Amino acid sequence: MKRFRFQLQSVATLRALREFRARESLALAIRVCEQAELALAEARGRRELLEELIRSGRAFTLRAAEHVTFLAALRQAAGDEAAAAQAVAQAHAVRDTRLNEYYEAARNVKVLANLESRARLAHRIAVDRAEQAALDERASVAAARAHRNLS
Fold this sequence. Notes:
The chain has helices at residues 9-59, 64-150. By secondary structure, the chain is mostly helical. The protein has one domain (9-114): Helix Hairpins, CATH 1.10.287. α1 (9-59) packs antiparallel against α2 (64-150).
């Protein structure tokens, strides 16, 4: 019997490549999310520090010009924090899209792997049947010879 050859091997190779690329883009999106979350944490920390400075400055005498400068810096820090939060939301949206793409690609690879395993099983059954038929034929020929020799 001839060797097993999966007819959809080229499709399986392409789908595996797509799955690899989807996994790589997912990893990149996860890294971008982590960086955006770190930037958000830094912006939040700067804003909280400025708030604390303003609160502690109120306990002492703070000149109006210094207070205005601190408030302007606080507004800037709050804006930076809002922009960082928006960047985090966008990064999470991209990550979720990449995750869905990866799941779809992995599902396609799994479908072809199941098809290949079924095809291998069918091939193995056909080979076993052919071998059994050949063994049965040899046994029949041997039995016929033995019967002819006895008669």
